[in-house]
Amino acid sequence: MNESDLPMMISPPHVRHCIDLLRQSLMCNPDLTMEEKDEEAGGVHGFGVQHRCKRWDELIEWTTAAQKKFE
Predict the structure, then answer these.
(1) Residue pair 10/26 in contact by the 8 Å Cβ criterion
(2) Contact criterion met (CB below 8 Å) for 28 and 21
(3) pLDDT-based confidence at 16, cuts 50/70/90?
(4) Cβ-contact 14, 8 below 8 angstroms
(5) What CA–CA distance (Å, rounded) separates 51 from 34?
(6) pLDDT for the residue 54
(7) Is the dihedral of CA 51, 55, 60, 66 positive or negative?
(8) Which DSSP string do the residues of 16-45 spell out, in sequence order?
(9) Which candidate among 6, 9, 30, 48 keeps its CA 20 to 30 Å from the CA of 41?
(10) What burial class does residue 5 get, using C-beta atoms within 10 Å of its C-beta: 0-12 exposed, 13-18 middle, 19+ buried?
(11) What's the confidence (pLDDT) of residue 17?
């Protein structure tokens, strides 16, 4: 099948664009929530946790400051 025969909504350029929008959304609005392990559940489940979303530049500042504490 030739790429030009594909419908626009599943064409490689359109799919790349959609994936890039998702990437930008994750980078610009990350969720910084740290979920504590639930020993009974054997992991995390996310219920009852307040999520904190930040801007990417704030995330970089926060992780840099946290990393310096462990150096």
Answers:
(1) no
(2) no
(3) very high
(4) yes
(5) 8
(6) 66
(7) negative
(8) HHHHHHHHHHHHHS-B---PPPBTTTTB--
(9) 30
(10) exposed
(11) 93
pTM of the model: 0.43
Residue whose tokens read 């930040």 = 54
Instruction: Answer whether 52's CB lies under 8 Å from 33's CB.
Output: yes
Average pLDDT over residues 2-29: 85
Q: Which amino acid is it at 6?
A: L
Beta bridge partners of 31: 53
Q: Which tokens in the block code for residue 11?
A: 């064409």
Per-residue pLDDT tens digits for 19-59: 999 988 887 777 777 777 888 888 887 777 776 666 777 77
Q: How far apart are CA 46 and CA 23, in angstroms?
A: 22
